[in-house]
Design a protein that fits this description.
By secondary structure, the protein is of the alpha+beta class. Helix content is 49%, strand content 22%. Strands 1-2-3-4 form a 4-stranded antiparallel β-sheet, with no helix packed on it. Strand 2 and strand 3 form a beta hairpin. The longest helix is centred in the C-terminal third of the chain and has 27 residues.
């Protein structure tokens, strides 16, 4: 297999992929904030939550749902700041993954990545981070 990358480029490609994968896993996990509510352990991230309170109308009380799940809709995310964080973090993860997969393809295909493309990809990674 021919490569358009130098040794430093190959290391960059693999580190980019590892960082992008780690960022995506962190984005999808609901363990950004940990705490307790109604004597139960709770956690939530930008669009997922675990062990959350729900109003039980039949009992006229609040009960804890002890399962993980995503918010029912984008508007169900608790605040505008968390919605912005969800969009920005999702876009950043997408950009990081795009650059990482392109860099990995550059390890296998000759003349895919030039010096200019590498610089632009580095700038995209900076924005994605």
């Amino acid at each position: 297999m021919a490569s358009s990358l130098t040794c430093a480029g190959v290391v960059w490609a693999f580190l980019s992929f590892i960082c992008a994968a780690t960022s995506c896993v962190g984005f999808f996990m609901p363990y950004w904030l940990l705490g307790s509510q109604l004597e139960k352990s709770v956690s939530f991230g930008t669009f997922r939550r675990c062990s959350y309170p729900v109003r039980d109308e039949s009992l006229q009380t609040t009960v804890m749902v002890e399962q993980c799940g995503r918010y029912a809709s984008f508007q169900a995310i608790p605040s505008a700041e968390w919605r912005i964080c969800t969009v920005v973090t999702g876009l950043g993860c997408g950009l990081l993954l795009l650059v990482a997969l392109t860099a990995l393809m550059g390890c296998c295909v000759s003349d895919l990545i030039s010096r200019t493309v590498g610089r632009v990809a580095g700038g995209i990674q900076f924005l994605g981070g």
